[in-house]
Amino acid sequence: MKTYLVTGGAGFIGSNFVHYILKKYSDVRIVNLDNLTYAGNLENLKQIENNPNYIFIQGDICDSELVGKVFKEYNIDYVVNFAAESHVDRSIVNPEIFAQTNVLGTVNLLNCAKNSWEVESGFKEGVKFLQVSTDEVYGSLGEAGYFVETTPIDSHSPYSASKAGSDLMVKAYFDTFKMPMNITRCSNNYGPYQFPEKLIPLLINNCLKHADLPVYGDGLNIRDWLYVVDHCKAIDMVLTKGTTGEVYNIGGHNEKANIEIVKGIISYLNENVDKEITKALIVYVEDRKGHDRRYAIDPSKIKDELGWYPETTFEVGIKNTIQWYLDNDKWMKNVTSGEYQKYYKKMYEGVKTL
Ligand code: NAD
Ligand code: TYD
């Protein structure tokens, strides 16, 4: 039985990953370590909170004493590090917390993993540290070309710079100590449980409220969208089958200009939900500082080596996603009103952490 330490498991991708793994395997244990920032939401995990194979610990990945205790108490085999400050706009306003959580937090996890896993001959059998990273570390593309694993790191935003810093620390633990690891670099994710500061859930929420849809700059920046469950499947494959020490890019060849996403969501909601939702809601606003123009992943390596492919087309994924937000309007209301934070305070009142 493998025990996973999933960090940031109450966030968007982390919670999807916890659901994915508990559905796929019956003989695993997941310890979710999350300090529940604004982006952490235990409502995302409501359906599995009583699963005997799932343990939640409220705590900070930067806390060396706590993380050390987690490794001792739970005999961790895999670390899947999702915990991060993840929003580019916030990183422009407040870069320090990005360096703190994303770089120093990752170093603390690496250190605790090394202390726990090192044996005389090297490292214990069957352990691995998987760093969940982003294509944004590669910087920005022109009209042609794709990011491959050997594309030089050229991050621009404080967010992507902090992710690049943490990737390099993970690589350093492999190069220096031979600590078993992989780094995955994924393109933009969409799907259920995404905090509505990111483009797609923000647009869905604003459309339904008949509020403005802010489009940065000319709306022609391109992102390469991947359905979150396909990302979770890729992480599972890299963790269990990936060659130690390797980086894997994850993306579904699904490039869209931002304005296409905006217009697509408007038309879907207009046709299926509310005839009053109109293009007039689009408002072109000042561009993001240092706004990367285009991201596009070449996923050949993970396809050829591990047989991964994205199962969900954008047409299906975006419909599922919109429908999920429509079916879960209470979730969205709780997030936008701040009510979700009361849910976990109530739930964990009196429950001691390690
Ligand atoms: P998110 O912001 O939704 O979730 C982050 C989670 O980390 C939250 O639950 C938060 O409470 C937790 N967290 C933050 N600081 C912490 C700390 N110090 N200690 C413990 N927990 C902490 O982020 P997401 O979109 O789910 O992204 C998860 C990971 O995937 C991040 O590392 C991100 O860089 C990476 N990634 C995201 C995307 C994307 O499109 N969202 C794409 C590629 C890679
Ligand atoms: P975002 O979801 O923040 O992801 P990232 O910056 O990590 O790619 O933004 C996706 C794209 O949408 C990006 O080009 C910025 C743009 N954008 C807008 O035009 N308006 C918005 O309100 C937001 C949040 C993003």
UniProtKB/TrEMBL annotation:
Family: Belongs to the NAD(P)-dependent epimerase/dehydratase family. dTDP-glucose dehydratase subfamily.
GO molecular function, one term: dTDP-glucose 4,6-dehydratase activity
Superkingdom field: Bacteria
Cofactor(s) of this protein: NAD(+)
Lineage of origin: Bacteria, Bacillati, Bacillota, Clostridia, Eubacteriales
Record-linked Pfam families: GDP_Man_Dehyd
Reactions listed under catalytic activity: dTDP-alpha-D-glucose = dTDP-4-dehydro-6-deoxy-alpha-D-glucose + H2O
Keywords: Lyase, NAD
EC number: 4.2.1.46
Keyword NAD among UniProt keywords: yes
GO annotation, biological process: nucleotide-sugar metabolic process
Domain annotation NAD(P)-binding: ranges: 5-320
UniProt name for this protein: dTDP-glucose 4,6-dehydratase
PANTHER family: DTDP-D-GLUCOSE 4,6-DEHYDRATASE-RELATED (PTHR43000)
